[in-house]
Amino acid sequence: MNAMGFQRSEGERAVASWRPLDQAVYRWVLAHGGDALLARCAAWASLADGEGDTALRLDVARRDRVALSAAELAQLRASPLVASRVGEGQRPFVLDACGRFYLWRNHANEVGVAAQVLARRAASTAAEADLQASIDALFHGQRDEAVALQRAAVGSVAGKSLFVLTGGPGTGKTTTVLRMLLMLQMQATQALTIQIAAPTGKAARRLAEALRIGKQDLREHAPARLSGAWQVWFDRIAEERATTLHRLLGYQPWRNAFARSEHAPLAADVVVVDEASMVDLAMLRHLLGALRPSASLILVGDADQLSSVATGSVLADLVAACEAKPRGDLVRLTHSFRAERELVAVNEAVRVGDPARLTSALADSAGKARWRCVDDETKLRASLQRWSDALALQLRPPALADAQDLAGARSALAALAGRQLLCALRETAFGTVAVNARIEASLRKAWHVASEGPWFAGRAVIITRNDAGTGLANGDVGMCLADRAGNLRVWFDGNGQAEAAGPRSFLPQSLPAHESAFALTIHKSQGSEYAQVAVLLPPDATHRILSRQLLYTAMSRARQSLEIWSTSAVLEAAVRTEAQRSGGLFDRLNRDPPDAPCGVADGEAAS
C-alpha cells in the first residue's frame, strides 16, 4: 500500500477504469491546488456518480481502492477544496462525518431532499373522520384480505403532505391511486387541482390510460354507490393531462434549469408521480422545491425495481425510512391480482434473494417460467433462432389497406407487445445491439425481405429521445408496416387520452433518434409489460451489472410466461447480489436535523 491508502498497482487500474470525465476531474483538482490524494478521491467520486452512487465511501474498501486511514481522512478534511457540511461555503467536494465523499451538487441534493422529506413527514396528520362508508363505496363493499392494504392506503392518504405507495406488478397501485384521489376530492372543501406525472412520456401515457380505464371500471361496477357528488369528483381527475416531470416543472434546456421552483411553485394541490423508482435524487429535490407547502405529493412505484439511471435510489431509501419510522405515510401492497400465480412466486423468490426458493418456484411453475442454460455463443444463437422463429409466426406483419387502417395497426402493435427479449447488456454478443441484428436477419429470411436498407415491414423500433415535433417520447415502441402498394410507415400507440385515440403513423425518415427494439435493455423495459418475456444475462458470473433488482425488474415484465437464459452460476449470482448505491439519504432521513453527525439520534444535539 502506498502513502495515499491505495494499492500500489491501483494507479494503472484506475487509469483503465476511469472515464475521460473522471480523468478530467483528476487533472482539475491538481490544477486548482489539490494534492494527489484529493485528486484520486475526486476522480473515483466522479466515476461513482456516473454509476449512480451519491457518495464515495472512503472508510471502506471497494473495487481497486482500500479504506483510507484516519490520517488520510484528516488530510482530505484540511483541504480548502473540501467542506464537511452545508454552511461552510460552496466548495467542490464534501467529506462528511461518516466518511462519505461527495461531489458538492450530490451533497446539496441529498441534504435538500432529506430536509424537505422530514418536514413533510412531520407536517402530516391523520384523517379524523370515519371514512369506512366512503371506502366501502370505492371498493364496492369488498373488505377481504386482497384489498385490505389498498383500503388502508385510501383511508390514510388524507392529511399527508407526502405519501408513498409501493408494490410489485399486478398489486393494483394505479387503481389504488385513483381511489386515493377520489377520497382526497371527497374530503376537500373545494375542488382540488391535481397534477399527474411520470419520469418518461411513455410512463405518463401508460398512467393516463390506466387511470382512464380505472375510472370507467369504477363507474360501471358501482353506479349506485358512486353516484351524485362522486361523478363530479371523477371528472376532476383529468388523466388526459398526465405529463412528464420535466414538462410539469417547465424544464428550460437553454439554461439547464426549471421554471417551477419555490419562487414559482406549481399550481397544484396534489401531485402524483408514477414509476417513482426511476426518479433520481436531483429531480426529486427540484420537485419537492416546486411544491407549495400545502400541497400533497404521492409517490408511486416498485421499490424493489432498478433505481434511476442517474444518481441515487430515492424510492428505495424513502420506503426504507418510512418503514423504519412508521408515520402512516407508506403502504406496501403485497397481494397480486394477476392470474399467473406461478410467475408471482418466481418473482417473489428473486425479490427476497433466495436461490433455493427460485429453483423450487421454477419447478412448480407448470412450464410458465423456465430457465435455459445459455453459456456460450453457440447456445445463444440456437436460443435466438428459436425465439425468432416464434416471433416471425406471431407477428406476421399485415399489409394495411390505407393510412387510416387503425384496426390493423392496433392489432400489429398488440402482437408486438406479446413477446419481448430483454438483455442486461447493450454491447457484446449478449447485448441488445448484436441480438437485434441477429433477430432482424432471421425475420428478414422468414418473411423473404431483401437485406438492403434498415427498414422493412415488421421492424420494431424504440425512440431514444423526446421529440416535441412528433409527440414521440423516449421509450415509445413502434412497428413498421406497409400498405398494399408497399409504402412504409411506422406506427405507435396513441396517447391514451381517450378510448378513441388510436395509433399514429410516421414516415420512417421523419422519426427522431431511434434503434431496433426486438431486444431491449432491462432499463428500457421499466414501466412496460409483455405477455411473454425472455431475459438474457451475460455469461460471466462476476459481471458487475448482475443484481437481484436487475433480474426482478426484467422478470416482472412478464404477464403470462417467462424464460431466463443464463448459466446456473450467473443466475445464482444475480439472485444473491443486492444492488446497493452508496449515499446517505436513508441515514439523513433517520436523523434530525438531516445534516447532523453520524450517530446523532432524533432530538439529540449535534456535537
Summarize the structure.
The protein is an alpha/beta fold. 39% of the residues lie in helices and 16% in strands. It is globular.
Which structural class do you get from the secondary structure elements? alpha/beta
What is the topology, as strand order, of the major beta sheet?
A: 7-6-10-11-5-12
Distance between the termini: 34 Å
Counted beta strands:
23
Q: State the helix count.
A: 22
Mean pLDDT: 87
Task: Label the overall shape.
Answer: globular
Helix fraction bin? 25-40%
Radius of gyration: 26 Å
Biggest sheet architecture: 6 strands, parallel
> Strand-residue fraction?
15-25%
Sequence stretches where pLDDT stays below 50 over 5 or more residues: 1-12, 496-500, 600-607
Plain-language structure description:
This protein is an alpha/beta fold and 607 residues long. The chain is 39% helix and 16% strand. The chain has a 6-stranded parallel sheet, with helices on both faces. Strands 14, 16, 17, 18, 19 and 20 form a 6-stranded mixed sheet that branches. It starts with 9 loop residues before the first helix and ends in an 18-residue tail after the last helix.
Summarize the SSE layout with pairings.
Layout (H helix, E strand, L loop, with lengths): L9 H8 L2 H12 L4 H15 L5 E2 L12 H8 L4 E2 L9 E3 L4 E4 H20 L8 H7 L9 H9 L5 E6 L5 H15 L6 E5 L2 H21 L7 H7 L7 E2 H4 L2 E2 L4 E2 L11 E4 L7 H10 L5 E6 L12 H11 L5 E4 L7 H11 L3 H9 L5 E5 L3 H19 L3 E2 L5 H11 L2 E5 L8 H16 L12 E4 L13 E7 L4 E5 L11 E3 L7 E3 L2 E3 H4 L4 E7 L11 H8 L2 E9 L1 H9 L8 H5 L18
Parallel strand pairs: 2-3, 5-11, 5-12, 6-7, 6-10, 10-11, 13-23, 14-17, 15-21, 15-22, 22-23
Antiparallel strand pairs: 1-4, 3-4, 8-9, 16-17, 16-20, 17-18, 18-19
